[in-house]
Amino acid sequence: MSLTIQHLGRLAVGLSLNPSLHLPTLRHNNNMTAGNQTSTSDFLLLAFSSHQELLFPLFLVLYLAALLGNVLILVAVGSDSRLQTPMYVLLVNLSLADLCFTSATVPRLLYALLTGDQTITHSACLSQVFFFLMAGNVDSYVLAAMAWDRYVAICKPLHYATVVTLPRCMVLLGAVWVGTALHSLLHTVLLARLTFCSNRILPYFFCDLHPLIHLACSDTSLNYMMILVEGGSVVIVPAICIVVSYVFIGAAVCQIRAPGGLRKAFSTCGSHLTVVILFYGTVVSVYLQPPGQMEGQEEPQDLVAIVMFSVVSPTLNPYIYSLQNREIKAALTKLFMVILQMP
């Protein structure tokens, strides 16, 4: 029974937005090195152990681009009263989640690449798990809320002003942040109660839920059960909402006969659809793979998928919206003109 729960739990961990489903086997010499470098309460993050001089500027540029793009979205919406509408409030929360998403892992990676210190304390490891889980799930739910917003705008345009209201969106977003925080806290607390073996090696660049459970020496049945029952539904529900919304949007677009109607519909949801494909496409590439393919996969390939999911995707999101949204570009242009005119 315990083995069955653990087998089912492996897939559900991926559904909790943790970018790994298996822990590659490490060589014995890595275990010896880890024993010499870590204390009894530290973990060792072995990813990117070589070519640090090339990887550091790469990840630094990616992180600065993520900060710049998402902060510009926040400033643009906050500085223009015309953009303080439900659609842009949802976009602001997506940017906040992306900032948390990248800041939960990349700064620690930059520190390791710069100093060569690949150890991380037990408490810092649990903090990474909490914030990464929360940010990833907020991303998922905000994308679902944005899909609902686009569905109402295209399929029920006459009811948009009364259905998608700012107070309703604020209540929805408050529930999303509180709910995902409680979800992340639950799994972090369950993880904190575990005791770990002497082997504390993680072949990734941040602490991930499933590899940590895999390293535990105590009973993990409760962890896997909660991941399967509660964790899976947290991501499945918004994914279903997005799919259903775009099914109705696609049916409505097919019925548009007015000149330019198809182009207008695509401009309305094109940015969101691009972000959804980027987000869930990288999620699928990380953990929804055939078992045989996953077992034969090498660690560097896993790391590329994880970097795409946890770093590249949240970095590109604000640029996708700013490049395809005239209101955002107009607000940023106005803001830059004000800055340039300052004495």
UniProtKB/TrEMBL annotation:
One of the record's GO molecular function terms: G protein-coupled receptor activity
Location(s), subcellular: Cell membrane
Main location per the UniProt record: membrane
One Pfam short name: 7tm_4
Secretion signal span: none
Bilayer topology: Multi-pass membrane protein
Positions of the G-protein coupled receptors family 1 profile domain: 69-321
Source taxon at top rank: Eukaryota
A GO cellular-component term linked to this record: plasma membrane
Transmembrane segments: 54-76, 88-109, 129-148, 160-186, 231-253, 265-288, 303-321
InterPro entries named among the record's database cross-references: GPCR_Rhodpsn, GPCR_Rhodpsn_7TM, Olfact_rcpt
This protein's UniProt keywords: Cell membrane, G-protein coupled receptor, Membrane, Olfaction, Receptor, Sensory transduction, Transducer, Transmembrane, Transmembrane helix
Similarity section: Belongs to the G-protein coupled receptor 1 family.
Protein's name according to its UniProt entry: Olfactory receptor
